[in-house]
Predict the structure.
Amino acid sequence: MHNLILYLVIGTALAFDFTNGFHDTANAMATSIATGAFKPRTAVSVAAVLNLAGAFLSLSVAATIASGIVNQDLVTLPVIFAGLAGAIIWNVTTWYAGIPSSSSHALIGGVVGAMLAYKGSAAVQWNGVLSKVLLPAILAIAVAGTLATVATWLAFKITKGVDAEPKNAGFRLAQKGSASMIALAHGTNDAQKTMGIITLALIANNTLTPTDTTPTWVIASCGIAIALGTFIGGWRIIRTMGKGITDLESPQGFAAETSSATTILTSSYLGFPLSTTQVCTSSVVGSGLGAGVTVRWPVFGRMIVAWILTFPAALGVGALTFGIQSAIGGNAGVAVTAGLLAAVCLIVYLLSRRAPVTPANVNDEWDPTHELPTAQPAAAN
Amino acid sequence: MSILAAAATAATAAKTAPKPLIDWTALGQSVVFSLIIGIAIVVILAFSIRLHAAGQRGDGSAKVVETLGAWLGIIVVVGAIAAGIWLILHKG
């Protein structure tokens, strides 16, 4: 009986990893694609390879899920499944809307929701929610936004009078390095997250003991899932980040990526990890402000609303999923909710076909009255 | 109680003390280091591009100095990227 739920949890965790990949491709590559540093297909290919490499390079695999947020001893396979369902539904919904949002915060929200439905509020450590969700979001906007604003202003100031061609060529070349670093960092961080979930599920199922190391097949499958998702390329979000927030030139692109990379790496190294998505988006806004060009505040405003909604929305779906599972009971409960999850994902995918964003039209000029491109090529997402 | 025993007791107490909700020291360091390193890398690359462009236009010793300065800046930026990869592999 437990094996069926275990397989469903592993499959769902890998599906989450896949959505995490295509949802977050924009973080590393949106600005490089917008400025022409990378061609769209090349960008997602490079990001996919570096995400895969990052999954294997990582030195410490975190075998915890929502550590410091819920009581770890009470986590069960149905709780993990319901948490993943909440995170996946939020990820595909925001992808459809072309809004970058934090997959980690969605996962935390989903698990907290499932735990609330399972054991009530006492099993949730609300201080952890404050310190791992709310505060990092505010910090990401403040630090990355300020840094990118100053860096962009200085980049333009220093290179004033330099011909456009060598200037853009220099910054574009440097963008390849900075974007690649973000992609590598993403692979080490986010693939680990799913490895932790699967490892925890294996421990909860008594397949592994808490002292066992993460099996190689778990590391490989998580790396491949996130790389595949990255390669598919979340073009809708790439378009919003690269074209929707502000108009980007290569000095802005390099300043934004460098701001993101230094903020993510220093904060992570010093034990204060921030959301990659929120840092990268804020950097793009800062690069627009620093360059003195138009920042489309309504677009950024929608992102802020989505960031505020991420935790409660995923929490609601996680709790609802767990409630349906419990009401039906046993394997059937998990199987029915898995079917519902697949159905929701399929519906969102079919809706997205009505106005697809592709490598061919991802860089089309941004029209505030019609944000998605009108051209509808065949293969797209 | 000996000094060693007192130190051991203090160390144990520090280890078992509840972790603060927000680590203000780490937070402050994150902000300061991010700002300094991020701005420094962009400024160095911008100067390298400026020097490189000037070096291509100039001649004589000025051209050599400008080209060398440009390449020095590029090496620093490449070094910063290498340091970033090192941080990724050795993150805390």
Q: What stands out?
A: Chain A touches chain B through 51 residues (CB under 8 Å). Chain A is about 75% helix and 0% strand.
